[in-house]
Amino acid sequence: MWRFVARRLLHALPVLLGTTFLIYTLVFVLPGDPIQGLAGDKPVPPAVLAELRARYHLDDPLWIQYTHYLTGLLTGDLGTTFTGRRVSDLLADRWVVTLQLGLTAWVLEVILGMALGVWAGLRKGKWDDSAVLFGTTLVISVPVFVVGYMAQLVFGVQLGWLPVAGTEEGWPFAFLLPGLVLASFGLAYVARLTRSSLIENLRADYVRTAHSKGLSGRRVVVRHTLRNSLIPVVTFLGLELGGLMAGAIVTEYIFNLPGVGQQLFQSIQLREGPVVVGTTTALVLIFLLANLLVDLLYGLLDPRIRHD
Amino acid sequence: MSPAAHPLLEVEDLCVEFRTRRGTIRAVNGLSYTLHEGETLALLGESGSGKSVAAQAVMGLLDTPPAHITRGAVRLRGDDLLALSPERHREVRGTRLSMIFQDALTALNPVLSVGDQLAEMYRVHQGMGRKAALARAVALMDRVRIPAASRRIHDYPHQFSGGMRQRVMIAMALALDPEVVIADEPTTALDVTVQAQIMRLLKQLQSETRMGLLLITHDLGVVAEAADRITVMYAGRTVESASADDLYARPGHPYTRGLLDSVPRLDRLGKPLVPITGAPPLPSSIPAGCAFHPRCPRAEPRCGSEAPPFRTLSPAGHRSACHFAEEVHHAPVG
């Protein structure tokens, strides 16, 4: 298995190089001068301009700039913002918020999504199954900002159960509502995926065999159907874990959470190349790790694709 | 009556239909057979003749809805299985009555080790602990002659060859020494050489345990080798029933005769094979009268309207459902 992990990490290297280069180039070719953007409308003295341009290698060709960046990255330096803050410091605070939000959403997806899916799958064709199908379709088709404002209005303002916005109350209370909103789409998807996978597996030959062994209905479902049904669900949840960690620009905006998504949005507007590239690099890394985790989990669930 | 006075397994006038939105399909339409201790009864029929559905009805594995058992009785040593509550019927499954399925690759759970799947029988039905049950599972694998059983107990189904996998399937069915084992096309998914090994194994195990074996198959070769008696099904009905030797020597139904004429036999070298014309009817549109009459070379007008009764032809218990059974029965073979 460790060979597999090592190989996968090696595979991640070109992906990481490719994405950082791509993002770096995209930020590089954005119109406008970053130093001038920083100064706003004020004129910048030519000496200062030259100093800054030299410090950030702005006059060098793209590939030299990128090489500078990469060497920094290898020594653990994500770069500095144009205002002089280290990108890693800047992101450190933000990551805590995004991590809390993302994990909350993910756990909600896992627990609620799977539970709803199993329930609906076992009650196929009954009214509660139809209710789950209807509800999930609704959630999937409504944009997240609508869900967000609705949730704020109902649970935050009218019922007053949970804080409307901000992180003052800390985890978990401040993150339950935004977590649920962020999770809504994935949760609905997980429920539907679990349901259809379970229904499909309940028709499998080995489930009939399990019945023929005289096992109780409960044992047939729990031991002989559930695990097999979860394989596609795990794929999705693994990718979700990466996706949710990437921060949620809309959700963080609605609930005023100072997370990575918000930072990324601001940095793109300010054309802060180092921040954008640094954040993206970290996101790509997380995504790759989540993918690796899924592949390892696969092996646990399904011995046919075990990596030994 | 004492249990011994009852035949082991008795199926009487069994009817199963599937009620779907597109109409009702009669899959089994008056099937009767009797299986005795230590005996092998072959249920012979083409695909779609209802033989697998009938077996699942006996096992209590049909999903209701859409399947409904509309008539008939299934008696295991006199106990009517169809009258049992689902819970009681479940207790019979695996312990007194068990089933071997066709394709062990799909019929065994791919994510559980073979040992776990075998041990489950002892854990669930006898409340054994994991260790003891696994030890029994190893013994079971030895019994069906899987080499190096103690080493392979933690392997998964996909790590076994087709023949070994089917042995696992057989081991699972025999775990609790059931009185009746239903084998649904147990060798169809296997190579011919492996087929013979598996059939030999089944016969051997049968002689050890005196179990009644219901062999469901479309393969006349398998039947000839293994069966004591044969019940032939066509379109959900029993059309003929006899001892294996009698049936091969003097078939009493044109359908059986057609089946025998359509396969190569060593005792009929040099004679042309004669296929049965046409195709078996769909369960949704079974012809009136004798279901076989549109394909029957002997058919007369009355066959299309009058369903032939299931009659006894000989004192040995040869029975056939054909208006001209005696004539067919006495006609020379070949």
TrEMBL record, chain A:
Q: Which UniProt keywords apply?
A: Cell membrane, Membrane, Transmembrane, Transmembrane helix, Transport
Task: Cite the Pfam families for this sequence.
Answer: BPD_transp_1 (PF00528), BPD_transp_1_N (PF19300)
**Family named by the database record:** Belongs to the binding-protein-dependent transport system permease family.
Q: What is its main location?
A: membrane
Give any Gene Ontology cellular component: plasma membrane
Q: Identify its membrane topology class.
A: Multi-pass membrane protein
For the ABC transmembrane type-1 domain, which residue ranges apply? 95-298
Subcellular location(s) of the protein: Cell membrane
What organism does the record attribute this protein to? Streptomyces filamentosus (Streptomyces roseosporus)
Q: What is this protein called?
A: Dipeptide-transport integral membrane protein ABC transporter DppB
InterPro entries linked: BPD_transp_1_N, MetI-like, MetI-like_sf
Q: Which GO terms describe its biological process?
A: transmembrane transport
TrEMBL record, chain B:
GO MF annotation list: ATP binding; ATP hydrolysis activity
Q: Which InterPro entries match?
A: AAA+_ATPase, ABC_Ni/Peptide_Import, ABC_transporter-like_ATP-bd, ABC_transporter-like_CS, Oligopep_ABC_C, P-loop_NTPase
Coarsely, its chief localization is: membrane
**Record bears the keyword Transport:** yes
Subcellular localization(s) per the UniProt record: Cell membrane
Q: Which residues form the ABC transporter domain?
A: 9-260
Show the GO cellular component annotation of the record: plasma membrane
One GO biological process term: peptide transport
Q: Does the keyword Transit peptide apply?
A: no
Q: How does it sit in the membrane?
A: Peripheral membrane protein
Q: Alphabetically list the UniProt keywords.
A: ATP-binding, Cell membrane, Membrane, Nucleotide-binding, Transport
SUPFAM superfamilies (UniProt xref): P-loop containing nucleoside triphosphate hydrolases
The superkingdom of the source organism is Bacteria
**What protein family does this chain belong to?**
Belongs to the ABC transporter superfamily.
Name of the protein described by the UniProt record: ABC transporter ATP-binding protein
